[in-house]
Design brief:
With about 220 residues, the chain is an all-alpha fold. It folds into two domains: about 45 residues; about 140 residues, Up-down Bundle (Butyryl-CoA Dehydrogenase, subunit A, domain 3), CATH 1.20.140. It has six helices and two strands, in the order H-H-E-E-H-H-H-H. It has a two-stranded antiparallel ribbon. Helix 4 packs antiparallel against helix 5 and helix 5 runs antiparallel to helix 6. The radius of gyration is 33 Å and the shape is elongated. The N and C termini lie far apart (about 80 Å).
Length: about 220
Amino acid sequence: MGDITEESLNNEKEPENVADVPQTPKSRKFSMRTLTRTLSTDPSIRSSGSWYEGTVPILTTSSHEEDPPPNFGPNLFTFPFYMKLAEWGMCLLCTGLHSEGTGKVTSFSYRIFPYVTAWTYMIITGIIILSYLLGQKMREVLIRIYFTLGAIMFLVTGCILVIIVSSKVEEWEMTDQDCILLTVEAVASFVNCGFYVADVAYSIYQSYHSVALEL
């Protein structure tokens, strides 16, 4: 065996600077693919051809492609969709009637609760209708929760309006027009409560019906 010189040992040392290490095309391809998959929002794609061509990365996915595709047919022009349109219309009607009929109502709680209920569910129901139109329908369990609370709130609203019309007319010197508007609003609130209950009941019925068909 020959003597191991100091010069040969120095030649066998790894270079201190990583940039001095020559990169082969294979190593460059691997590092580029790793970087691309790290920055991508869809790590499930494994095809190498879709990630690069040579050593230049070609991104084939974007954030909007991860959303489920629109599915308009099964959701539009159905009983639940028409029910939500009716519920939204009732919320709009209650908002207008309450604005015109409570001019002389001095109690803050009697005046604000029906107004907040109508406005809140006009927005919530409008968002759900918009999700139908965009083909991205909200999860049914969330709709049931929202509408169950809505039914309770409109029931309370109707009771508050009945109390105002039946026992507070003389105290607040309300006119006949105010009483008529609040009476119509009370009826609309009870009707809308029934709409929300029917919507939730139909949703639960559809779920059990679909499960029974699969058995």
